[in-house]
Amino acid sequence: MRAALWLLALFGIAAAVALFAGNNEGTITVFWPPTRVDLSLNLVLALLALLFIGLHFALRALAALFSLPRQARQWRLQQKERNLHVALFDAMAQLLAGRFTRARKSAQAALAQERTLAALDAELPHARQLRVLAHLMAAESAQALQDPASRDAHLQQALNDRDERGQPSMLPELREGLQLRSARWALEGRDPAGALSRLAELPQGAQRRTLALRLRLKAARQAQRTQEALETARLLAKHRAFSPTAAETIVRGLAAESVASAHDVAQLQRIWNRLDAAERAMPEIAIQAAQRMVQLGGEGTLARTWLLPVWERVVAAPDALGQSWRVKLVQVLEAGFDAVDADWLARIESAHQKHPRDPLLQYLAGMACLKRQLWGKAQQHLRQAARNLQEGALARRAWVALARMAESRGDQAEAAQAWKSAASIE
């Protein structure tokens, strides 16, 4: 369509020129003494048009001729800029491929190209960002090559990079990325204090990002700051940085470490109060906290209060808790029988009646009856438990209790048999 319109326009122009030039009888006389020259008006117009076209092309040729040095300089700058990008991309590729020496050389070549461009007063739109990235590639390579001096030098040059006005030249995201990478390098060098210091320099918003929280968790665990690690793990679980199972496992492990680190009863109570309701409801945490309370000589009543939700859970579904933790629960409750109240004795008796074939409950009920001097029930429960218990320590204690009860009755034969059974348990 456009070609047809151009063709029609050309025909129209040709017709107009033919009409004008065909009937144009005007002349132009040029006097050049002693000569007189008569020229047709059409010829003069044609000569003027040719002269204008000739001058136009001559001026363009001169402009192109004088612009050759500038174009040559621009071409050289483009080649240097292209070499800079090629060197930077090559550094990234070599770093990903594990060729760290080549990656550092390519990064240094990129920095050399950038300095050359800066010396030539070339204005690159992202020169500062490219320079910082090149320093980062060089620092990463130095970290992989175990060259901390070179790594720190490139890192400081990147962090201290400023523009002509003395202002920081990099984007905030790029600076935060450098600080995160430096924190990771500190962790790899087993320097958790340095990693936490780098993370503390981040803005508040950046400190709550998932990557920063992961680094903080690792650094806090390396520095054995269990409480800080636990709080960080809670934030990561809230951000869904882990799967629910992994988050529960990590939080449970850190809470257990925090409980185990208590050196006195008051510290243990503070740690317990700082735990979330969901963490206090974890059977492993409650059992370990109660066990630690008993070890520190604290109040047995408070320890049993912590164990009450776990006990109710075990009574409702004995298989809900692993065998090893059920054994620890029984051991903790047994350790506090000297000051056990009637409510707990009633709970133990009720649980045994609900699950009469459970050897752990039989053992616990037998020991409770022994503390209350109910010799007949204690002997019955402990004999059944001793024959069925798979836990060697509890079975041995059950046989020892039976042997002592038999000795108190004067039944030496039964006592000897009980002592023999206790000794045979490995």
UniProtKB/TrEMBL annotation:
Residue intervals of the HemY N-terminal domain: 26-118
Transmembrane spans: 44-68
Membrane topology: Multi-pass membrane protein
Highest taxon of source: Bacteria
Pathway: Porphyrin-containing compound metabolism; protoheme biosynthesis
Residues making up the signal peptide according to the UniProt record: none
GO BP terms, alphabetized: heme metabolic process; porphyrin-containing compound biosynthetic process
GO cellular component, one term: plasma membrane
Keyword line: Cell inner membrane, Cell membrane, Membrane, Porphyrin biosynthesis, Transmembrane, Transmembrane helix
Function, as annotated: Involved in a late step of protoheme IX synthesis.
Name of the featured protein: Heme biosynthesis protein HemY
Native source organism of the sequence: Xenophilus arseniciresistens
UniProt lineage: Bacteria, Pseudomonadati, Pseudomonadota, Betaproteobacteria, Burkholderiales
